Amino acid sequence: MIEVLRWVVERALAACDGPILVYFLLINTSYLVLMIAASVDFASHLRRRTWVDRDAAAASPMVPGVSLIVPAYNEQSGIVSSVESLLSLRHPRHEVIVVDDGSTDDTFAALVRRFELVGVDREIAADVPVQADILGVYVPDDGRTRLTVVRKANSGKTDAVNTGINASTQQLVAIVDADSVLDPDALIAVTEPFVVDPVRTVATGGVIRAANGCTILDGRVVGVSAPRQWLARIQVVEYLRAFLMGRSGWSRLNGLILISGAFGVFRRDVLVDIGGLDHGSLGEDFELVMRIHRLFKERGEDYRVSFVSEPVCWTEVPVTRAVLRRQRMRWHRGLWEVLWKYRGMVLNPRYGRIGMVVLPWFWLFELAAPALELGGLVLVLAAFALGLLDTTYAVLFMAVAYGYAAVINLSALAIEELTFHRYPRWKDLAICMVASLLENFGYRQMTALWRCQGAWDGIRGAKAVWGTMTRTGFHLTPGRDAAERHSATEPDPTTGADAAAGPDAAAGPQAERGARSTREAAA
Amino acid sequence: MISSTGLLVASLTALAAVAVLLVALTVQARALRRRRERALASVQGRRRHLVLEVASGEDEDRAAWRELAELSRREWRGMRPAVIGLLAKVRGRPATELGALLSAYGELDAARARLNSRWAGRRARAAYLLGLARDVRSRDHLAALLTDRSGDVRFVAARALGQLGDPAVAPALLAASAQLPGLRPGHPGLPAWVAAEALLGIGAGAQDAVAEAFGSKDAHVRAVAAQVARFGSYPVSLTPARVCILFEPEIGTKETLMGLLGALGDASDVPVLAAYLHPLVPARLRRAAIAALGAIGTPEAAGRLAPLLDDDDRSVATAAGQALTAMGVRGQDLLDAAMAGAGAARRVAAACLHLARLRAEGVPA
Fold it and tell me: Secondary structure of chain B: what % helix, strand, coil (to 5)?
């Protein structure tokens, strides 16, 4: 038996020798290219920031109006401050549309109390198909506050967003999670590409950062610091890497295929053209952007999907392994399902660089990476155990593999420090540096395993089960550490995984809270 | 073996060196930034009240200005960002005084020289400063930058010219918003909103050039003209806009022109706008025409809108209800009449009247 195993491992080592080196070289070189592209993007962004007058933009009648769609399911604790915060964003013409997706808690009652809502018999257009019946439309009784609350039977986040699209009245539609905290200028900034290039820009996405550890007062992040839990600290670095390198880099290369569901802006007419969000999709935000790419490529129209690197949207990241596991499984399952759905675009010249470069990259280095990483790890350990590999070599090999990953993380930190430097304390900087290294000791392998499980669930078509995620939100009590509240209210992990949303890590982690907020009850 | 041990050792050493370098770079960047911020805060802390005095217009005897004009070179470097920051926020005499301060330190001469720099970033920063300082001497030079090869420089030059407010540059701004030679088709020299904002900054002095631009063959120029006329409410533009709307192929521009007719037009524009109410017209244009008819508010306009409450496209019906509400008593009478009827019109009318009532009751006494 041992001999057979030795033979298998020996063969496997021999077969993988060249390919692993090539893969290793390609993946890290691609990260390097993305990093350089992102750096160029930031330099350009920071240069422009000097002379782009946001005050003027905030008051300009020419800035297109935005409808902020907030799907909400059982968000009673944070919904009021969240809506107040969204209403007070700097923008000359924006409205907030809360779609209460059949909440079973006091979400709607809290809104009624705060905004003195009254029912209006307003018709909601049927521009995009929706599944659930609308139970009522409500507006504040002052008749002026630009808030509309739509109540509907529970049917999941995608259907709630589609209902919001139908209720929206502005040219642009922003999809925001009920528990996201936006910087005051976030809306002005993320709609800027639509103003500068109104013909070509069809969608933009903003940066998502981890809110854990930050001080949040009245729906605003007023103090930024690192979280207290190492699990969250590692995710801070992961988010920096994903957004500061992944998304910015792809955007610079005109190959952005993912806009986070937690904060994205789309042209309403484009959303209507493509029929809104795909109700059956687990990675609905990823799927939406892919559908936009396919539509415009097939029409042969010049268009642009952009990423705005500042200001940002803050969201909580999981602080328990159970929640993190579900999140990563969901993301990877969503990634698999969307990539599989759009497999016809891969290496198809008709889809330009999306088909020829970006999608193959996602298949190779995003979808396959965790499986290859785990496989490699198992092989090296097996070879070592069977005496096929000497200790020095095994250690050196692992050190190089994970050392490169740490260098990528440190590069992201350096870029963050040279550009936006949002973490003001030396202590936080040190924590992030340590987290950059720690990621490789356990966290990376753990998430790789979960991602493989997620993809496998997708491949075998396992039924997705959504768990209950009762939350207190981080808006209510000013100044408290968001992560503490998060962990205090984390649900029973045995209730099962919630919905899938999209790809993770290097391609970009998404805010899990948004993905789960309304879908969870749909199952 | 996957690879030679030597290669791995070399790779690991290189990675370790890069990691150390990155940590050092990060730490040094923060340390330098902190030191710079402290130095700036120290200089600005002592003199900031002087800048505020000048910027608020309270420096009537110019004592603060003189004190600021006598700073050492080093102290001035510390104060400069504060002066430029405030210059972007003030108008009138305080802006002139702050501009004069920059001039006293040779900043404007240096900026004029930098307009010819090989580096786009320098040209853009220089144009930005000259615009803030309302340096009229740079007008022609800034106008020349409207055709610069760098989009950023064109952008900043246009804004600077808008800040100068000289009507003589209006034609150049409109020309720069056209498709420039060397740029990809569909990419105008200036984004429409930048050109429009600059022209709006010039004010009524630009209206003749804007009116003339309605006849341009370039769609980008017509789009800018329509926006400026719409948001600047230039009466001179009304006649060319009425002609332009008949032939304009761009939906966005047509929509803006409808807004212009709604804002400045009269009963004679109702038939033209009413032609866009037909069900085969794109909903976006129908809604724009409805809003324009609502803004004109004549009995004939109201009569055209009332039947739309029954329209199959409910977004059009809602827009019609809102337009009737905005008309005041005349429109509300029609909505009341629709309320008395049956069918889909009744629901739209009820919702619009309800919202109008809420707005009326919500107005503070």
Answer: 80, 0, 20
